[in-house]
Structures are given as structure tokens and as C-alpha cells.
Amino acid sequence: MPSRLRLAAVLLAALAAPATLAATPAAPGATPLLQAISERAAVEALVGRMQAAVAARDAAAYLALADLSDPVFRLEHTRWAEGWARETVQRDARLALSGLRLEGEQASATLEASWTDGSGSRPTARLPVVFRRTGGGWLFAGERWVSVERDGVVVRVAPGLEGAAPQLLEALPAVKAGVAGTLGFDAPGRIEVKAYADSASLGFMTLLSLPAVSGWNEPGEAIKMVVRPGAVPSNSTLAHELAHSFLFQQYPGDHLPWWVHEGVAQLAASRHWSDSYARDYLRRTVDRARAGELVPWERIADFTTTPVSLWTHVYPQGYAFFRFLEEAYGPAKRAAWTAAAGRGEGLDTASRVATGLSFPELDAAFRGWLAALP
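User: That's the sequence. What structure does it adopt?
Assistant: C-alpha cells below.
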């Protein structure tokens, strides 16, 4: 996904000295059973405080309850907390634990979460999670992963998806090369992929306002994707999110409109579509154009202000535009257009650099192209 959440002022006080929730000390000579009961009560109480902080939209209080020692989780979870903290909508997140297991300085459990997302739905997620004891107290440490690493690629899968890890590692080199070929450049940085068993789990750990999606990426974050238990991971979804990661690295500064991000990512993903699916996907925009239902570009330029009702337009309309650019002007001109826009030169300059037309003229040519398609 595009750069929709800017990391606000870092909550230094909360992150540098997190307040832990200590277990109630057991009486001297307490049995291991009594000690375990005390520790379990402390973890349960921690989850209660987490829920209260979300209800109060207090990001600092919430983050003080999290173990943010992993830099990727720290970035992702800080953005997650800042997302619901600045909203005026109450997401009414409800948290509960089941299957809590104490394992020395670590505890594992299933976190059951429900909340109201941006579409008005109320999803429910059941996430395997981890808690860690630090300084005599317990902190929430995020998802419980099964992790594998090879050649600078880290794949983390939810328990139950162990079979997907080698499949993702095997697919990544070819998918990455395809994305580089589509975009016209490579991004040599470290790749981290996190695979969730369902969209509710991905959404809960990403953005409470996020409707159901199959993938996500933000600058500096892992590539997140849904892999259904027993299913082969989608190379299309992987390519889409890799394209976002490439664009973020190549063009920092958040200059690309949201529809550009999604259009380019869908073009990269389309290399893994069947011909019939690509034809049907393009037909969505053709039919909308003929019905006079194309959305003005400025209405889908910013993720944070685009109504959820227009999300189903952003992806196919953006894809159709870049499909037009590629077929009418060639891959090099299409890549030059994206590069100029990514550098912050604006859509009009990007259009003139790549095609010799102003953006309004190029948009008119795009609409004519759609009208001429059979």
C-alpha cells in the first residue's frame, strides 16, 4: 500500500522507558502453581490495560505496554497506535486471551480481537501472539512467528502456515526480478515478508480503519500478505506489495498519488495474471468509462481522504492508466512518467517529459483509448 501514514513525532519518553506490568509478588515460599497463577493474572491484566489505552486513544500509554525492541515491529506498531489515536472514530477494540502458556521469560497465547473497521464492518481476528517479561514485568511483543531466512530474505509465517515459508522463499527471486523489470529499477535492500492466515489478522495488526485487504506495505515495514492455510502463496499479491516497497525506496518523499502507487503495483502484479483475468480486470474500467463513472484523479490521490466506497475504483482505474501508457508509448516512457512524478515534478511535467502532452491531454487520450477498446 502507498505512504498513507507518516510517522508522527516519536514518543520518546514512552518508548525509551516503557512501563511494565509486574506480576503480583507471590508470598514467600509460594508454590510453582501459585506463582504461575500470579504470572497469568499479570498477563491478563496487561491485555486489559492495552484495551483501555486503545479505548482512550492514548498511543503513549499503549506503546508503554509493548516490547518494541524489534525495529520493524516498533515502526509498524507505532504507526498502528498513532493511526487509531488521531482518529475521531471510536473503533471499540475488544481484546481477550485464550490458550495462555507460560514459558519462562516468555508467554504465548491466542489474542482474540474485534473492532469496527473503516467500512463499518466488525471483523474478528484470532492471532497467535507473544508476551515477554522485561525488568520484572510483562510486555506485549506482537505476533508469534515461524521464521526462516535465506540470502537476505526473511519470511515470517503464522503458526499453521509453515508450508508457505519455503514456497515464498522459492518464489521471491523470480517475482522480484519481474517487479524490477516492470519498474525499470531494482531495490537491493533487505526483504521481510509476514504471512497471515486471514485478512482480519493482517488488518488488526496494521490499521484498525483498514477494510479487508490481501496485502500491505509501508516504508520501512515488512511486506504483509494473506496466505490461506493449505493454499499456495499468491505471486500476484507478492509482486504488488514488492512494487510498493520498490517505489518507496526509489522515490522517498511521498510524491506519488495513491492511484499511481496502486496502478503501478497492479501492473507489476498483472505479470502473474492469466490473460482472461487481465482482460476482465481491464473491462471494469472500460465499462465505467462508457457509463461516465470514471473517478476524477484528484479524488483518489490521497489514501487518507479517499472514501472507502471509491477503493474499488482506485486499483483498476490506476492499472488501466498505466496499461494505456505502456501500450501507447512503451515501457520506457511509462517508467519515465513514474520516475518524474516520483521525483516530485508533478503529473503535468511527468506527462510532458514522457509523452509530450500535458496531463489533461494525456488523460483525454487515455479516455479515448478506453472508448476504442472492443
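The chain has three domains: 12-142, 145-250, 251-374.
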